[in-house]
Amino acid sequence: MHAAEQFQIYLETEKRYSQHTLLAYEKDLSQFLDFAELNNDKQLPEVNFQLVRAWMVDLLENGQSNRTVSRKISCLRSFFKWLIAEGKIEQNPMLRIRGPKVEKRLPQFIKESEIDGARIEQLFSANFEGVRDRLMFELFYQTGIRLSELIGLKNKDVSANSIKVLGKRNKERIIPIGKALFEIIRSYQQLKPDGPDSQIMLFVNKDGRKLYAKFVYRKINTYLGSVTNSQKKSPHVMRHTFATHMLNNGAGLETLKELLGHANLSATQVYTHNSFAQINSIYSHAHPRGRKK
Prior knowledge:
By secondary structure, the chain is mostly helical. The chain is about 55% helix and about 5% strand.
């Protein structure tokens, strides 16, 4: 078994990366190995920083964005760090590599006025599919869960005041829910059809089969298109919206970190930029010395 295959097993079994991340790493690593024309593990010690830099230049010259190249370099860093730890190579070619500068992008979110409860309720019908779609929409907004976490929810994960979510690297967390949201869950459960997946999975289609990611994405994209002109309309934008609205209404960073399932606080702090923009706007209009003329 080649080192690249062993590395993938390591990422899956020990690091417990998601399938999405595993596929991205596999693609990035394969692309580099093809560029370097490495056909066996004996050639890995020959890789030097000049070769890695040549790959970076080739990617950028072929139109890859700085962000994409930075992600690919991150993959190589992990790979060569693992090779060193396994004793497969002695020199790490990544130590002298600096990725291209990447501008930080502020998370896009939906305004509170656009996602008003009464306005949202009018979007959904009272039949099974309408109630199910409303429940998906409300769960994204009221809990901030990821798309993969939503479609992975099981019936046993739901209680009257919380849901249990299986997040990245199989880390579980408990997210509180309100009475109104639980009432939507109960309404959905009463309308839920029987099917091969209905007894286990929370979310199913009209045939009782588990939902898939593209289906949920399209649904949320369509509903958000009815309430906002925001360029991005996706479940992840709903997650950003949840986080931003929580901070704007007084939630602490540590609490938000636990609710979102972030591994470290730095991932959560990006939302403070959006929150500060809201605070600055309020200050500018409310304080006598800060009012905009």
